[in-house]
Specification:
13-stranded antiparallel beta sheet; 5 helices; 13 strands
Length: about 270
């Protein structure tokens, strides 16, 4: 699974509210926002300023390198190095290297492919993999702050929630038309703290996924969390630890194209 990354990012790995018209309204009736929408918008604006304001909003591409660790029972079970390329809003390629093998996962909109280094095979992503990628985008911090959700979700303010060391975080929520709910917490100064949502696992059980953001570093006027910890059902399951992040580098479209063979994919892999 991609360092969810499947956009925990992803990151860092993005506004104004949208609200659906009630079924009883006519097509010409005005759209009504929840009464607390202005509070949520103000929190988003504060977060954008914390991350770099217009510089943050004008990011078109992000390239990064680092380590992705799987966590079990509070310790590192395994880790891989990775290089990641994002072209906003919906193109991403991540190359992994670990244990002597390489793998690649690439998504463009509603399509995607993977390279399995163990078998040296290139395969189209299946429906579940693409669904997971799309969910990762819709639940990401960048998707919230850059407003890509507008037209598909409603924004609301939840209130203050207990944070750490006696601090309380402002909490806002996106409610998508298909029922997906994503909550985000921010400190008083606009620092993003965490994002969370619930979904059904392979056993049909509802579990909570939570990304916690840490170690914000200024990169040419844009702040980014260099550590993203994933918690599933309350237990830490992974960590993304960036070593470098660069913004607005030119990215050739060719890196997202599906290789003709496993041999070509292996030759073109990044880490």
């Amino acid at each position: 699974m991609k360092p969810n990354y499947f956009r925990a990012r992803a990151l860092v790995l993005t506004i104004f509210a949208f609200s659906s018209v009630a079924a009883s309204q006519t097509e010409d009736a005005p759209v009504k926002k929840p009464a607390n929408t202005p509070q949520a918008e103000a929190i988003i604006q504060k977060a954008i300023q914390f991350l770099g304001g217009e510089k943050y909003l004008n990011v078109k591409t992000q390239t990064a390198k680092g380590k992705f660790s799987l966590i079990r029972d509070g310790g590192v079970a395994s880790f891989q190095t990775f290089s990641d390329v994002i072209v906003y809003p919906d193109k991403e390629r991540t190359d992994f290297k670990g244990g002597g093998t390489k793998s690649i996962q690439t998504n463009v909109g509603s399509a995607g492919w993977v390279y399995d280094g163990d078998q040296e095979l290139v395969k189209d992503q299946n429906e579940k993999q693409i669904e997971s990628y799309k969910r990762g985008i819709r639940t990401s911090l960048d998707y919230l702050l850059r407003g890509h959700w507008k037209g598909d979700a409603e924004l609301s303010y939840i209130g203050k929630r207990q944070g750490t060391l006696g601090k309380r975080n402002d909490t806002i929520k996106l409610t998508y038309k298909d029922g997906l709910e994503v909550e985000f917490e921010f400190a008083d100064d606009g620092t993003p703290v965490k994002g969370s949502y619930k979904h059904l696992n392979s056993e049909g059980e509802e579990v909570k996924e939570e990304d916690r953001y840490a170690q914000f570093i200024d990169v040419v006027g844009i702040k980014a969390p260099f550590i993203i910890d994933r918690f599933t059902a309350g237990a830490q399951t992974s960590r993304i630890n960036y070593e470098t992040i660069e913004f607005n580098k030119t990215v050739p479209d060719s890196i997202f194209s599906r290789p003709k063979s496993g041999k070509d994919a292996k030759k073109d892999s990044k880490p």
